[in-house]
Amino acid sequence: MTHTPPPSRLLSRRSWPEARFLADVLRTETVGGALLLLGAVVALIWANSPWRAGYAELGHWVPWPGGAALHLDLSLRTWAADGLLAIFFFVVGLELKREFVAGDLRDPRRAALPVIAALGGMVAPALIYLAVTLSAGGAGLRGWAIPTATDIAFALAVLAVVSSHLPQGLRAFLLTLAVVDDLFAITVIAVFYTADFHPLPLLGALLPIAAFGLLVQRRRTWWWALIPLAVTAWALVHASGVHATVAGVLLGFTVPVLRGRDGAPGLAERLEHRWRPVSAGLAVPVFAFFAAGVTLVGVDVGGVLSNPVVIAVAAGLVLGKVVGVFGSTYLLARFTRAELDEEITWADLLGLALLAGIGFTVSLLIGELAFGAGSPEEDGVKVAVLLGSLTSALLASVVLVRRNRAYRRISERENRDADGDGVPDVYQGGAA
């Protein structure tokens, strides 16, 4: 009699140390998401107020003129997109390295779901975007990647408001999905949105990146050496024509992940803990402030909303992400005998797929790269990203609020600590 192996479980709970690390990440990103929303709201109000000219002038102000030879005569808006977002992508690089070395992505079986879901969540929105724009004559095809991104900070901020008891396995999946999504977004930016490529500065950037990597591999965390090396690498990547934020990812990849023999956190985890608040609390909100301010005064709103690019971006975020994330997960379960973890339902996954349609930071960045800063097309992209993200957030809220009572029961069971040892019983071998 042959023994049939039990079906694998999708979105199962992580280990207790991994769960604690995830909780710290979620808290920081949730606060960052709230600040991101605040920055976007302030920008929208200012850009549509009687003082809107001041908002535009602030964004175009060049604080350090005379740096044209080094490609550094940048406006505040460009410094926010190219400079501050490099910090965000440095943290993304640390996350990716950690996930591939010590997290879920090191196990091909556990990595399959977030990778496939992230791919589906990029392919489906891109196809919807292309279908809409091609049916309208093909204008705006360059923006096909705009609806493919997921903003984890924005999504977690919404999640914190509507439901604080989401099952841990699902929260972990949302974070891992966003990390993989960021990896694909970085690749898309580097490959498809690089103009006027200059190979020599890019080759030159390898030297400070290598020196940075050599120091961190030897655990030499001298800020007076690492920060100048990082800035030099950033400047050279920027001069090469490749988007400068790629430098942040490459620097993050050089940092070692594994813990020490005494169980102390690895350097990647320590640097992530140190720089994530800067990314979530400063870099992303400031970028949102300069990127989200679209002026609608005197604009034909009906004409903007009927623009094929606007429709394509909004449809890609709202419909494409749901079809891609939910559909790919369902197909994976359908054809591999895998089942959802017993604490998670398909309704939960639907809510998460809707949350994935909140594409803000990277979507706005790709819109600027695709159509040019200050162009009429970029203003339409801003409207579409805001509209699509808010619609996704509202739909996700409707689904997740209905599930909140069930989440609370699950959370109470997970947090039960009958023996008082500080570790929830559910993470111990004998737990029921």
Automatic annotation (TrEMBL):
<keyword id="KW-0406">Ion transport</keyword>
<dbReference type="InterPro" id="IPR023171">
    <property type="entry name" value="Na/H_antiporter_dom_sf"/>
</dbReference>
<keyword id="KW-1133">Transmembrane helix</keyword>
<feature type="transmembrane region" description="Helical">
    <location>
        <begin position="21"/>
        <end position="47"/>
    </location>
</feature>
<feature type="transmembrane region" description="Helical">
    <location>
        <begin position="311"/>
        <end position="333"/>
    </location>
</feature>
<feature type="transmembrane region" description="Helical">
    <location>
        <begin position="221"/>
        <end position="237"/>
    </location>
</feature>
<feature type="transmembrane region" description="Helical">
    <location>
        <begin position="280"/>
        <end position="299"/>
    </location>
</feature>
<keyword id="KW-0472">Membrane</keyword>
<dbReference type="Pfam" id="PF06965">
    <property type="entry name" value="Na_H_antiport_1"/>
</dbReference>
<feature type="transmembrane region" description="Helical">
    <location>
        <begin position="243"/>
        <end position="259"/>
    </location>
</feature>
<feature type="transmembrane region" description="Helical">
    <location>
        <begin position="111"/>
        <end position="132"/>
    </location>
</feature>
<keyword id="KW-0915">Sodium</keyword>
<feature type="transmembrane region" description="Helical">
    <location>
        <begin position="199"/>
        <end position="216"/>
    </location>
</feature>
<feature type="transmembrane region" description="Helical">
    <location>
        <begin position="144"/>
        <end position="162"/>
    </location>
</feature>
<keyword id="KW-1003">Cell membrane</keyword>
<protein>
    <recommendedName>
        <fullName>Na(+)/H(+) antiporter NhaA</fullName>
    </recommendedName>
</protein>
<feature type="transmembrane region" description="Helical">
    <location>
        <begin position="79"/>
        <end position="96"/>
    </location>
</feature>
<feature type="transmembrane region" description="Helical">
    <location>
        <begin position="174"/>
        <end position="193"/>
    </location>
</feature>
<keyword id="KW-0739">Sodium transport</keyword>
<keyword id="KW-0813">Transport</keyword>
<comment type="similarity">
    <text>Belongs to the NhaA Na(+)/H(+) (TC 2.A.33) antiporter family.</text>
</comment>
<comment type="function">
    <text>Na(+)/H(+) antiporter that extrudes sodium in exchange for external protons.</text>
</comment>
<feature type="transmembrane region" description="Helical">
    <location>
        <begin position="383"/>
        <end position="401"/>
    </location>
</feature>
<keyword id="KW-0050">Antiport</keyword>
<feature type="transmembrane region" description="Helical">
    <location>
        <begin position="345"/>
        <end position="371"/>
    </location>
</feature>
<keyword id="KW-0812">Transmembrane</keyword>
<dbReference type="InterPro" id="IPR004670">
    <property type="entry name" value="NhaA"/>
</dbReference>
<feature type="region of interest" description="Disordered">
    <location>
        <begin position="413"/>
        <end position="432"/>
    </location>
</feature>
